[in-house]
Design goal:
The chain has 297 residues and is mainly alpha-helical. The protein is built from 13 helices and 7 strands. Helix 9 crosses helix 10 and helix 10 runs antiparallel to helix 13.
Length: 297
């Protein structure tokens, strides 16, 4: 039913069904549309609009990921197409232009921005600049951390649960119930080496994280939780643009080892043979630590 892709990090190079991220898109979007209708019935316009907006973003992300799977887009195109997925957020004006900038409040005050209660009012710039930036950075960094069974799903799942915990005191958490369950099921199958979610899954998951953070006004928690993603992408991009090198990891029996440091995976496996699962577990632990920090801050 689904196309198959080679699992290059196994000795026998088995072919695994890929593109199953479309199931995450399907179940999450259907749930959010039903939720939107339900909250409209209850005259809860805020949650109804939030559910509708998140559904639109998930569908956009899934479509863009599916298009990438088909067309095998170059990275210069991948870097900008997630901006399209921010359109539902911009059109429906989801999120608040008030953001905490911590030690930079005085800097933004000097630039002429209004600072109220320790938060900067970015006004219309929030919707035309900050929202697309959050969507683009989150989606691309999530998409760049992959290749090992479980990475594409376990790490977004940890961050998603963290965002749900941060916003638990607000009703908006209900938007993530089915996305979390769908991601959990896919994570179990992905970690066991039975499926790949493909770009359809990674794009949709990345956009879910960014969009929900904007809708729930927990952008700061998102930034802290995705720092490992940003670190990984920084290493990849620096090596690609400065040295024109890409990350390489070699199979040695049932272990993986790298002779270079060009991504988070290769940093962990650098001159140290580790099983694929151990590398994934270490990276998942890193995400767990940063997500816990995001919850506590």
């Amino acid at each position: 039913m689904f196309p198959k892709a080679v699992d290059y990090h196994k000795q026998k190079k088995p072919k695994i069904p890929t593109g199953l991220g479309v199931l995450y898109v399907l179940f999450s979007s259907v749930y959010l549309f039903i939720l939107s209708a339900y909250f409209h019935y209850l005259d809860n316009g805020s949650l109804a609009t939030g559910a509708l907006t998140l559904a639109g973003c998930v569908l956009f992300g899934g479509f863009l990921g599916l298009f990438d799977d088909w067309a095998d887009l170059k990275w210069r195109y991948k870097a900008v197409i997630p901006i399209l997925a921010s359109l539902p957020l911009i059109a429906l004006r989801e999120g608040t232009p008030m953001m905490a900038t911590y030690v930079f409040n005085d800097f933004f005050r000097l630039l002429g921005f209004e600072v109220v209660g320790g938060k900067v009012n970015f006004g219309i710039l929030y919707f035309i600049l900050i929202v697309p930036l959050i969507i683009t950075v989150t989606t691309n960094t999530v998409n760049q951390l992959g290749g090992l069974n479980g990475l594409e799903t376990i790490c977004p799942l940890i961050v998603m649960i963290g965002l749900a915990v941060v916003s638990f005191q607000y009703d908006v958490t209900v938007l993530l119930y089915v996305p979390i369950v769908a991601c959990l099921i896919l994570a179990v199958l992905n970690y066991s080496g039975k499926i790949f979610v493909g770009n359809t899954g990674t794009f949709a998951l990345g956009i879910t994280l960014a969009s929900f953070a904007i809708i729930a006004n927990v952008e700061q928690a998102l930034l802290i939780a995705i720092l490992p993603y940003i670190f990984n992408s920084s290493i990849i991009l620096l090596n690609r643009f400065l040295f024109h090198k890409t990350a390489e990891i070699t199979v040695q029996g049932d272990k993986l080892v790298s002779r270079n440091i060009r991504s988070l995976q290769t940093l962990i496996a650098h001159n140290r043979p580790l099983s694929e699962r151990r590398i994934v577990q270490i990276i998942a632990l890193i995400f767990l630590l940063f997500t816990a920090l995001a919850i506590l801050v």
